[in-house]
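Sorry, explain these tokens?

___
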Amino acid sequence: MANETLLVLSGIGVAPYSARGLEQTCELIKAAGQLRRTINGALRDLSEPQLRKFSSTITGTDQLSPATNGIWPGKTVTVDCIFELCYPTMSGSADRSVVSGSSRTEGAMTYYRPQLAMMVTDWQLREDEYGRQVAWTLELEEV
């Protein structure tokens, strides 16, 4: 069976007919930005580099449930993301692992799908029995 999605969840898996039409967010964790103003009003970044991490929410609606049995908050998974990050080709580089074969160049920019080590923080299922649709959400934070 051909892959229905670019998403890979190593440690959980992606069940067939659970992942068509996915959406994935990429956000900064709250601790990533510690911005403060000086007494003179200048904005300063006091954040620690080791706190530059992402959180992500993956949502989908399909015919079958995703693989959630035995998945509890704290489970670590490797996520081949469906979103892309971007950097200037001449002066930058990927700051996360690159999903194999996902890197591409458009003009002066390089795009890639990151592969992230993440931890499950929450998940939800909602099933429409009559319409035979399963909606689900998986919330993750980078470890």
Summary: The CA atoms of residues 32 and 48 lie 7 Å apart. The two ends are 32 Å apart (CA to CA). The mean pLDDT is 94.
